[in-house]
């Protein structure tokens, strides 16, 4: 199943320039294909999550207040944030909003990019696409996506986000993708 610019346009933020739609379709499409995110069910679940996390590919870097939740990133050992400033430096990036020094290190090693040293790389469309697909596969989310449709969105959301934040939006995005993919 090929990720098309038509599908990206349906899920992207309103008014996304055509050149960005095409870039997303090409780069994210190639990453998804390589990662085995290649069935209508898998793509629908994956796109629901990444388009929610990035607000339709609008934001590739987490908006920083800092909010109370963001302040708590500082010193979070479960995220690998061990140095002062790690919370901000390793804030969410890419369509899956990779967060935390440890995650940048681990994912960077797996995909072959120095993300710990250059975290901003994760905000580039091509690298961010690789990051998102790597995260998806590292958490075996294709297997979960294969188990079902809309009923699996909460379980996948818990893994992606750590809770059920904005579940309604993720479910709506799943419905849009699934309909476009003929599910």
Automatic annotation (TrEMBL):
<protein>
    <submittedName>
        <fullName>Lysozyme</fullName>
    </submittedName>
</protein>
<dbReference type="InterPro" id="IPR023346">
    <property type="entry name" value="Lysozyme-like_dom_sf"/>
</dbReference>
<dbReference type="InterPro" id="IPR052354">
    <property type="entry name" value="Cell_Wall_Dynamics_Protein"/>
</dbReference>
